[in-house]
Write a structure and sequence with these properties.
By secondary structure, the protein is an alpha/beta fold. The strands form three sheets. The protein has an eight-stranded parallel β-sheet with strand order 5-4-3-10-9-8-7-6. Strands 1-2 form a two-stranded antiparallel ribbon. It has a two-stranded antiparallel sheet with strand order 11-12. Helix 11 crosses helix 12. It is globular. It has 21 helices and twelve strands. It starts with a helix and ends in a 10-residue tail after the last helix. This is beta-N-acetylhexosaminidase. Its EC number is 3.2.1.52. Belongs to the glycosyl hydrolase 20 family. It catalyses: Hydrolysis of terminal non-reducing N-acetyl-D-hexosamine residues in N-acetyl-beta-D-hexosaminides. InterPro entries: GH (IPR017853), Glyco_hydro_20_cat (IPR015883), HEXDC-like (IPR038901).
């Protein structure tokens, strides 16, 4: 700006000099530019010579015109430079795709309207209009993922949700292993507010936590996709008495009744609060899987009687309403949804519903050996229905048993090798594009179920699965990279074990859980089945408080030593788990996987210490 002002001052000086030439017979010695030492008017023009005067004036005018052109060009150049410094935020996918950042059509219209002259009377907005404008969603640059195949790690937070401090350690690991996104299923860990505040758990993340999670993801080049259930698996909401009336079947908290007026209001509230806290999200996953008991509520039965029993249409109608709401309020966001409820719906009905305009199906199958022909048929049908992209969902944990404690690596690796075959055959479907695969890591089968494997326990399996996708199979290079990143000496696929140490966050828990799996039940069962105990200190002896101290001393030291060792180990495990998880989760995991066995050992030790002090008294009556 300072340089522009200097140019204007120079122009003014030249204009004054020309006027002096025209009005005076005395001529300036010279006119110099501040940034050019060349003379604009030459010294020594003879007074009274009109021809010389005319020629000199003409020369000065020509020079001034040239100078003005130079100034205009310079000012334009500085203006463009300034605009570049204030350009919109850059593409935030960190070079993972090709293409330019494009603004949505709506944002372009808003920007263009700012350049148009306003009509009289429209210069100032009314307060109501200003309030409406503030409530409109802020639009962000649309990211071009057309050349990017997404590898998304699913974080199921409806059980064993880790502290943010642990996620800070895990996100860099995910990036190194080849992930480029996160599918975060918050459920009751989201900081709902207002009418929905009742839905958040005692240890729910704070608003600041949600912001930090996204910041950490951005630092590690991980695209965040929030998941909000809108139909099935709404137990975390429908379990509350406040929402009992919205259940499809009164006694089951699983599924939403799509015919109740407040059902859509609940869904809109859930979506709005989550998406508003994720302003950079390009996708939202709306769940919609396993809508159990759909059509069994009285309102649904009445609707089916009037619509030829078409349960598929009932499902699509609700999803269309959800999709329309999201597209109108958040035009930057695309929808993902599990596909299982659509598998039996005809191509024609899918096309007629209109959901193909804004949603992409995510075909899920966690089997070690996929039915590839069946999946190929699903893809073909979705392509015919008009879907433009399709996603797949594999599993790296949480799909081998609702109370599984240890992750079977081979099973999950084979699941991904099968999915690679499907991905490699996508050229058979040119009208629909494969967009990405979500590696699911289920923590519970539903809101009320037990905990599956903990995340640290599943890290080796996740690493094998991700590297298999990156390298087209678990080949030598994939194995080498997996070992290098995890800090292991070897991966034993048959034993599902990372051997020879480990350097990943949570490795202490990985080791401890493995020790529990291999030894806790075995050692306690062995001591309870010991011949001395069964023969001289049985449940009957303990019930009536009598035994021979001489016999008891034959096994007493062994029992006490085992008990003390496990109590010390469990105390260390408590501390390690407490560094990653919240107290209620640690208690739950201990109750399910440790105390069932430890309580037997503790009761045995308690009875031993009491009865041996009786010195062989008669049994109590």
């Amino acid at each position: 700006m300072h340089l522009q002002n200097t140019f204007m001052e120079n122009i003014f000086s030249c204009s004054v000099s020309i006027r002096r030439i025209e009005k005076s017979e005395k001529y300036p010695v010279c006119i110099r530019s501040k940034y050019n030492s060349r003379l604009l008017l030459l010294d020594g023009v003879p007074p009274g010579s009109s021809e010389i005067m005319h020629g000199t004036r003409k020369a000065v005018l020509v020079r001034l015109v040239v100078f003005l052109l130079i100034v205009v060009a310079a000012m334009k150049w500085f203006s463009n430079s300034s605009d570049k410094e204030h350009a919109s935020e850059p593409d935030m996918f960190w070079g993972k795709r090709k293409g330019k950042v494009m603004l949505p059509e709506e944002e372009r219209k808003v920007q263009d309207s700012k350049l148009e002259p306003q009509e009289p009377g429209k210069q100032e907005q009314k307060p109501d209009q200003q309030k409406q404008d503030q409530e409109k969603p802020k639009l962000h640059p649309v990211k071009d993922f057309s050349s990017t195949q997404m590898r998304i790690i699913h974080l199921d937070l409806k059980g064993a949700a880790p502290k943010v401090s642990y996620l800070e350690q895990i996100f860099p690991l995910l990036f190194k292993l080849g992930a480029n996104g996160l599918l975060i299923e918050y459920e009751d860990m989201f900081p709902y507010s207002g009418d929905l505040e009742i839905l958040k758990s005692e240890n729910a993340y704070s608003v600041e936590d949600i912001e930090k999670i996204q910041h950490l993801a951005e630092l590690n080049q991980l695209e965040v996709i929030p998941l909000v259930q809108v139909f099935g698996h709404l137990e975390f909401a429908l379990k509350h008495e406040k929402y009992h009336a919205l259940r499809e079947v009164t006694k089951f908290p699983n599924s939403l009744n799509p015919h109740m007026p407040d059902s859509l209001s609940l869904v809109k509230g859930l979506i709005s609060q989550v998406v508003d806290r994720h302003p950079k999200a390009s996708w939202i996953h709306v769940g919609a899987d396993e809508v159990f008991n759909l059509g069994e509520g009285q309102e649904s039965k009445n609707w089916l009687n009037s619509n030829n029993g078409d349960k598929g249409k009932m499902f699509l109608n609700h999803m269309k309403e959800v999709g329309d709401f999201i597209m109108n309020k958040y035009p930057r966001v695309s929808l993902l949804m599990w596909d299982d409820m659509m598998r039996q719906i005809s191509v024609e009905k899918l096309e007629e519903s209109g959901i193909t305009r804004f949603a992409s199906p995510m075909i899920w199958d966690y089997s070690s050996k996929l039915n590839i022909k069946g999946i190929d048929k699903y893809i073909s049908n979705y392509a015919k229905a008009g879907f433009k992209t399709v996603w797949f969902a594999s599993s790296f944990k949480g799909a081998s048993g609702s109370a599984q404690i240890w992750t079977p690596i081979n099973q999950h690796m084979n699941n991904h090798l099968s999915w690679l075959k499907v991905i490699n055959a996508m050229e058979k479907h040119p009208s629909i594009r494969f967009q990405g695969i979500a590696l699911t890591g289920w923590q519970r089968y539903d809101h009320f179920s037990a905990l599956c494997e903990l995340f640290p326990v599943a890290i080796p399996a996740m690493a094998v699965c991700l590297q298999s996708l990156v390298h087209g199979g678990f080949n030598d290079e994939a194995r080498k990279q997996t070992l290098n990143i995890l800090g292991c000496k070897s991966i034993n696929l048959n034993k599902s074990l990372c051997e020879g140490g480990g350097a990943f966050a949570g490795y202490e828990i990985y080791q401890m859980v493995h020790h529990i799996k291999e030894n806790l039940k075995t050692q306690i069962d062995k001591i309870l089945q010991d011949g001395h105990i069964k023969g001289t200190f049985s449940r009957y002896h303990r019930k009536y408080r009598f035994a021979n101290p001489r016999n008891m001393e034959m096994f007493g030291d062994q029992v006490l030593k085992l008990h003390d060792a496990w109590e010390k180990f469990i105390q260390d495990l408590y501390i390690s788990m407490g560094n990653i998880y919240f107290p209620d989760m640690v208690e739950e995991w201990m109750e399910e996987n440790v105390y069932f066995y430890m309580d037997q050992l503790r009761e045995l030790v308690k009875d031993y210490k009491q009865i041996i002090q009786l010195n062989g008294r008669p049994k109590t009556s």
